[in-house]
Amino acid sequence: MPSSASRSILWFRRDLRLSDNPALFAAAGDGSGTVVPLYVVDPTEWDGLGAPQRAYRRASLESLSDRIGGLYVLHGDPVEVVPHLASLLDSTVYASADFTPYGISRDAAVAELTELRVTGSPYAVSPGRIFTKDGSPYRVFTPYYKAWLEHGWKEPVIAPNVRWHVPTGGDGLPTAQTAAGFVCPEAGEVKAHELWRAYTEDDLAAYADVRDLPGADRTSRMSIPLSNGEIHPRTLLADLGPDDDAYRRQLAFREFYADVLFHRGWSAWDYYDSSFAKMRYDEPGVEFDAWRMGRTGFPIVDAGMRQLLHEGWMHNRVRMIVASFLVKDLHIEWQHGAQHFLQHLIDADLASNQHSWQWVAGCGTDAAPYFRVFNPISQGKKFDPNGDYLRRHIPELASLGPDEIHEPWRLEEPPSGYPKPLLDHAVERLESLERYGEIRSALR
Ligand code: FAD
């Protein structure tokens, strides 16, 4: 705890909030000292963010700065600028834990040069806390989920009284440009709480029934504030009742993937199941471009990819469908798709994104059987039966009814401007199974 009249530094990273922020509590101590709010624009991290994520992060930082009455912003390598500031101000640095491979090595390097006290994390149960009976990390979600529930978490804490001190100068917030037409959602802690409150009142009770229907669009969209730490998952969990298991379970998926990444940092870009690295894949070419632009001719795939480009977000069911299409219809390695997602999702999260991709590709945790290949036409019909989601994102199909919209190429006069299907799904499914058969038989 900081002693009386001391000064501490709170280094904000992906925890852009004041309430339920254990690092802020630790930095504020008994309230007699002052806290310097610091954000470091680290080129290694910032330049790797996609434009939508940068725009949202900047908006969130502006909102945080307004709430505090300023934010001291430095640009540079945190390993240099954080210890330098700490030494200038003769202060201890407080931060919330970052469990990504880069965050772990950066914080270890900073801690060698200055006192860095890491308290709390972006998770209800931090990575590395729960293990199987034989002491190894969990590899399968359901037993992890049981252990996670048993472990439990603390209640959220309200914001402490803080005497902020914002030094003059600094480098200011970075600029963030987005593609024309992209509308950045309103950011910040206050907005996150507002959205969550509205969600619990209007939609949470129906979550289990509607979560798979992209046309209904009634999931919480909390992934965006969660990925910037504008709201803590404990705050969400505290509002859930006994009937909200379906929602609690999804939050646990986020924690599970963070745990997987923590123990196996290499699985961010390498195959969790290394046998899949031996599979035959195709190089990304014009078909990959068609997938990225939402012009494959398969409406549910195109609607999802266009939603991603325009909104920086995509419904979970559709993320699974488009990912399956890339890996199993186009035979392209999951890493290409994962990278495209990271560049366009506002909620881009290394742990959830990479491991969800690996799950769809059949090479991740909980191995979804590879031979279960999503059919993009029947998936569209099943989960968007009226075609509401398709019409919302594909203007060329806006005038088609539920019976026509899933297979527009069958119409006597297909809608102009919308491409014909890029491939025959039945043929590519067999091709995909053949390639899978090759790696399976090679293992025997
Ligand atoms: P809700 O359905 O309201 O769920 C509530 C919360 O639970 C979400 O905000 C999220 O934090 C968590 N959650 C839900 N489903 C999952 C899941 N399958 N895995 C992990 N956490 C989950 N999520 C990200 O946050 N960042 C990503 O980069 C990301 N990439 C993905 C890539 C693929 C290929 C797939 C299939 C899924 C990905 N997800 C990712 C998980 C999921 O799609 C999103 O979390 C979800 O769509 C966000 O919308 P929501 O907040 O309305 O979710």
Could you state the order of secondary-structure elements as H and E?
Answer: EHEHHEHEHEHEHHHHHHHHHHHHH
- Largest β-sheet summary: 6 strands, parallel
Q: How many DSSP helices? A: 19
Intertermini distance: 58 Å
Radius of gyration: 23 Å
β content, as a range?
5-15%
Strand segment count: 6
Average pLDDT figure: 95
Which consecutive residue ranges, at least 5 long each, have pLDDT under 50?
none
What small ligands are held by the chains? Answer: flavin-adenine dinucleotide
Q: Assign a percent range to the helix content.
A: 40-55%
SSE blueprint:
Elements: E1 7-12, H1 22-28, E2 34-41, H2 43-46, H3 51-68, E3 72-75, H4 78-89, E4 92-95, H5 101-113, E5 116-118, H6 141-151, E6 163-164, H7 189-202, H8 207-210, H9 223-227, H10 233-238, H11 245-263, H12 286-293, H13 299-311, H14 316-329, H15 334-344, H16 350-360, H17 376-383, H18 388-393, H19 425-443
Parallel strand pairs: 1-2, 1-4, 2-3, 2-6, 4-5
Helix pairs in contact: 4-5, 6-11, 11-16, 13-14, 15-16
The structure holds flavin-adenine dinucleotide.
